[in-house]
Amino acid sequence: MKNQNIRAQLSQIEITLRSKIGLELIQQHFEDLQLSIIQQMDLSNLIDYLSELKLADCCLFERLMRLDAALCQLDLGLYGLCSDCESEIEASRLQSDLTEQRCSVCASRYNQEHRHELRLTH
């Protein structure tokens, strides 16, 4: 898949996420917030802004972070490489989720470690 095509698809994901974030903010009663501001912020400022609003725990925030990472990797010529071991991420994983950050082996390892961390904190 060409970088231009990947970037276009990632841009579509960003548009969808921004729309969902706007709805999330409305549901949480941020009436004074002008939603047009969200649409005008660049991705890193939007991430910072959501952190300030204490919305970093929501699923949309995680997707936004993954999108930002994928776009950065694309800019650096590292898109499609595992963020842990730097091996190529399987094409099927990227086709399933263009923002995937790990190969299947590292994703499995990460999920096991993360579950272990959750057990330790509860």
What is the residue-averaged pLDDT?
A: 85
Taking the sheet with the most strands, its summary is:
none
Oligomer kind: single chain
- Helix/strand-derived class? mainly alpha
Q: Which series of helices and strands comes N to C?
A: HHHHHH
**Unreliable segments (pLDDT under 50, ≥5 consecutive)?**
none
Number of domains: 2
Give a verbal description of the structure.
By secondary structure, this protein is an all-alpha fold. It has two domains: 1-79, no CATH class; 81-122. The chain contains six helices and no strands. The chain has helices at 3-27, 35-40, 43-52, 59-76, 91-96, 104-121. The mean pLDDT is 85.
Topology:
Layout lengths: L2 H25 L7 H6 L2 H10 L6 H18 L14 H6 L7 H18 L1
Helix pairs in contact: 1-4, 3-4
Keywords, please?
122 residues, mainly alpha, 2 domains, 68% helix, globular
Give a brief description:
By secondary structure, the chain is mainly α. Helices cover 68% and strands 0% of the residues. The N and C termini lie far apart (43 Å).
